[in-house]
Specification:
The chain is globular and about 85 Å long. The protein has 22 helices and 24 strands.
């Protein structure tokens, strides 16, 4: 347990300053200071509502409010002291002794002292020497899970922090409110990970966290870059600002750190030039991007999906780093044995296989995960793990990666009976859809950007037989980047056979505006049904799936709440999908059973419309009753005529 006096160096409190007081008032204030300095500090908070006895309140000037407005409330709730930048008007006449006796500490920058204070109070000095960041638009969660898995499997205890919460080395999960938590919550989690045996922590680092200084003063050992497309422009406003936020993480790396970069993404070479850290690259040779170095045509092609603003910015980056510079950067890294490359990529029964190499080492990598993008994630994870544990050879990492389980809510496949589906593919690369126990499949994924949606739908399309349909929900989150909505809709229309327009979490935004902005991205909006309530949209599609069809449910992934007007309602999409699939299976069973019966239905009461109550069947949702009673009647009319 720390006292306020223990934090004197961080808070810039001069030692011995109050010993020479002589006047009665000064003696009283000095005694007050002594009492204050001896008070214990057991927590840090930047939210006055969370302050309890023993908390140190640090006032930050945030985007929505200024924490300096709440210093009195923090003291009233038992704060040991409040740390401010600005002197409150009513204390303008007070000297430092008076301020400190009242529990008020003034520093030049509260943001600058926040992380050092958290490190001291939560005792995270050791664990923060072994931090590994993962950043990029897409793939952060999966790559973080992969690195953590690899390290734990070679007896290097590691924890993780990210979108799915914090994960202890033994697999237990701790909930978090942010992908990259603010400093007080982050160091509290780091302390828990350290207490539970973690030697290293792998952490997703968002662009907002970089801009909001949540990870300032953290000494990263590695920073891994996955890719750069478009997201969060509601916050960053421009593609350039978004890129600069990512770049700041690499600019801040020390010479002893390592930047792990995706050589198949043109921004990687920009990051390589601005960082002083060591550089390791990974890429897929079959794609011929990393080795060629000229991304001009790639950028123009991707610009059709990601928008003109992204294309314009990336072409400007390409001009600053010509192909010969990119090739030179990659060749130097390869000559130093600092490139992990994959070639001869091919699908397997349950994932992907490739030959991978680093320097003179080569071996076969097989990953049990669908999605070619997961091969990129696996290469990123292996390249990072090799930096953390340099004495372990490539073949060992490949063997461990072969046992990697699916990440919850990431390309998660549920079959027609509501069970998690272990996919199997014949040599032609298509899933076996002849198995009548799995007549159709639902794919749940966190994809919420145009680039991620394109990768997801392209991968699922590979497994659809030519005469089967690929269904998708077109949706986008409220109070987030509005510019990506028409781009997401356009990707859905181009790659899917059937689309249903619906809502994701709406936040505080008008739902009609969200739907209209998505609809603007369709070429033929008149052909796309609108089912605003997400749960009904899922039921709508599942009721219409035919054997062999795929249904992609994007955006929420493994989230456990659904936000409407800042109220988080309990909702797990996986569970709801399983419920709908079970309902569909029940109705199909009823239809099959009743088609074999000599019972003649009352056609007037069995059509689509208001369903009548019938005690001879299970209690099903009214929506399903309408759909399926109509099908039952129609199929029996044909046999009776």
């Amino acid at each position: 347990m720390k006292t306020l006096a223990d934090l004197g160096n961080v808070l810039q409190i001069p030692s011995g300053k109050f010993a020479a007081a002589a006047e009665p008032r000064e003696i009283e204030a000095t005694n007050g200071v002594a009492i204050r300095l001896a008070m214990q500090v057991n927590a840090v908070s930047i939210d006055s509502r969370l302050v309890k006895t023993g908390t140190l309140f640090v006032a930050l000037n945030g985007e929505k409010t200024d924490g300096h407005r709440y210093w009195r409330q923090a003291l009233a709730q038992g704060a040991t002291a409040v740390v401010l930048e600005n002197l409150p008007p009513e204390l303008i006449e007070a000297d430092q002794t008076d301020l400190l006796s009242r529990g008020v500490i003034i520093v030049p920058s509260t943001a600058a002292v926040l992380t050092p204070l958290c490190r001291e109070i939560y005792g995270t000095a050791t664990i923060t020497r072994n931090l590994h960041g993962i950043t990029g638009t897409d793939g952060k969660t999966t790559t973080t899970a992969m690195i953590t898995w690899l390290l734990n499997k070679v007896d290097y205890p590691a924890g993780s922090i990210g979108t799915l919460g914090a994960k202890l080395p033994d697999g237990r999960n701790l909930p978090t409110a942010y992908t990259t938590p603010p400093a007080p919550e982050l160091h509290r989690l780091l302390a828990q990970l350290q207490t539970n045996g973690a030697r290293a922590v792998c952490m997703e680092v968002s662009s907002q966290a970089a801009v909001q200084h949540r990870v300032d003063a953290l000494a990263w050992q590695t920073m891994t870059f996955t890719n750069f497309t478009v997201d969060h422009l509601d916050y960053h406003h421009t593609v350039e600002n978004y890129a600069l936020a990512k770049a700041s993480l690499f600019r801040g790396l020390s010479k002893a750190a390592t930047a792990v970069l995706n050589a198949d993404d043109p921004l990687a070479y920009y990051l390589a030039q601005l960082t002083q850290a060591q550089k390791v690259f990974y890429y897929i040779q079959d794609d011929a991007l990393g080795s060629r170095g000229d991304f001009t045509q790639y950028i123009k092609d991707r610009g059709k999906i990601l928008g003109k603003a992204w294309e314009k910015f990336m072409l400007e980056v390409q001009e600053k780093i010509p192909p010969e510079s990119s090739r030179e950067i990659l060749c130097k890294a390869a000559a130093a044995g600092r490139v992990v490359a994959a070639r001869n990529v091919k699908p397997t029964n349950s994932g992907w296989q490739a030959e991978i190499s680093r320097g003179e080492e080569t071996c076969t990598l097989t990953i049990p995960l669908l999605g070619r993008f997961n091969l990129n994630n696996a290469l990123a994870a292996i390249a990072t793990a090799m930096v953390i544990c340099p004495n372990i050879d490539l073949r060992t990492w490949a063997a461990v990666m072969a046992t990697m389980p699916a990440v919850p809510g990431r390309l998660e496949i549920i079959d027609g009976q509501g069970q998690a589906c272990p996919t199997r593919r014949p040599s032609n690369g298509k899933l076996n859809l002849e198995d009548t126990t799995t007549p159709y499949r639902v794919v749940i994924d966190f994809a919420h950007t145009p680039g991620a949606m394109e990768a997801l739908l392209t991968e699922v399309r590979r497994h659809c037989c030519a005469n089967k349909k690929l269904w998708v929900l077109a949706n986008s989150c409220g109070n987030r980047d509005r510019g990506k909505r028409p781009l997401i809709a356009s990707v859905c229309e181009r790659l899917a056979d059937r689309i249903v327009l619906t809502l994701e979490e709406v936040g505080q935004e008008n739902p009609a505006e969200i739907l209209a902005e998505l609809q603007a991205g369709f070429r033929q909006p008149e052909n796309i049904p609108v089912v605003p309530l997400r749960q009904e949209a899922i039921r709508y599609v599942i009721s219409r799936l035919e054997p062999g069809d795929y249904f992609v449910v994007p955006s929420l992934g493994d989230e456990h709440t659904y936000n409407i007007n800042n109220v988080a309602y309990p909702y797990v999409e996986r569970d709801f999908v399983k419920q709908c699939l079970a309902e569909r299976a029940m109705v199909d069973a009823l239809i099959e059973l009743s088609s074999k019966s000599a019972f003649k239905s009352d056609g007037d009461n069995m059509g689509v419309g208001e369903p009548t109550c019938n005690t001879k069947i299970p209690c099903l949702p009214a929506y399903f009753a309408c759909i399926y009673y109509s099908r039952w009647r129609d199929s029996n009319q044909s046999t009776m005529n």
